[in-house]
Amino acid sequence: MVILDISAASWTGRVRSQNEDMVLVDNQFIREDTYHTRIVLSREDRMMIAVADGMGGHSRGDVASNDTLRNLHYFFYDIPSCLSISEFNEAMMGWLESINNYIASKGRADEQYKGMGTTLVGVAYYNNEFYSLNCGDSRLYRFRDRQLVQLTTDHSLSNLVGNEKHTNVITNCIGGGGNPSSSFIDMVTITNDVMPADVYLLCSDGLTDMLSDKVISELLEGKADANNLCSAAIEAGGIDNVSCCVITIK
Asked: Distances from the Cα of 13 to the Cαs of 31, 212, 232, in angstroms?
């Protein structure tokens, strides 16, 4: 049995006119709101927590993030029980192909959706295993013993070339107008690394572009929840939508 204390928040920020981010916590979808819950997991349970950062502006990134998380939710809670790790990975790759085709078809059918896309970062619990999932430049961190460690790799031009001025140019996402078959998800089994008192942070780049790892660490050390973190990013400038989820392992 594993107990998770979870907080989530998603806000527009000070500059953008709409919120293209969304957070999924089990059966709850969070946008322009905060959410707190405690979940008790047995080995037979399943749970999905994810942050999606929509892209496209006029191309409706808000629709891309919403469609992706809702589609993920229905898919994940409908897959058979007791898939092996490799079978679960294969199922998620099948879902990625499906959601990419869906978003692409929506763009072909209606010009306002053409080119829309979204990042996705998540933590899944399935068949007594924890998984990290990543597509894009939203991030998953672990905070343990006052040390903040990024567990995911940014799929971004800045990460490829080491040039900070390219921070917002991503090289992998769901949708986005590219070739659906070129999209991928990094999936890692993290079960053996999950320990009591660990804190896991999922966030869009609206948080990390505004707050340094040092500041995030100080906030988490002070028991900040997701809304505290988002508020700090907004106070620091809030130039983008900001969303995050804080998971504490009990």
From this structure: 12, 17, 11
pLDDT digits (tens, 9 = 90+) for 46-84: 999 999 999 975 569 999 999 999 999 999 999 999 999
**Sign for the pseudo-dihedral over CA of 70, 249, 93, 22:** positive
Nearest to 242 by CA among 200, 207, 212: 207
| Cα angle value 4/92/107 (rounded, 5°) | 110
pTM (two decimals) = 0.94
Compute CA 117 distance to the chain's CA centroid, rounded to the nearest angstrom.
Answer: 14
Q: Apex CA 172: angle with CA 168 and CA 178, to 5°?
A: 105
SS3 167: coil
User: By the 8 A CB rule, do 132 and 80 touch?
Assistant: no
Distance, CA of 85 to CA of 41 (rounded, Å) = 18
- Phi and psi at 242, nearest 5°, equal -135, 130
Strands 28-30 and 21-25: antiparallel
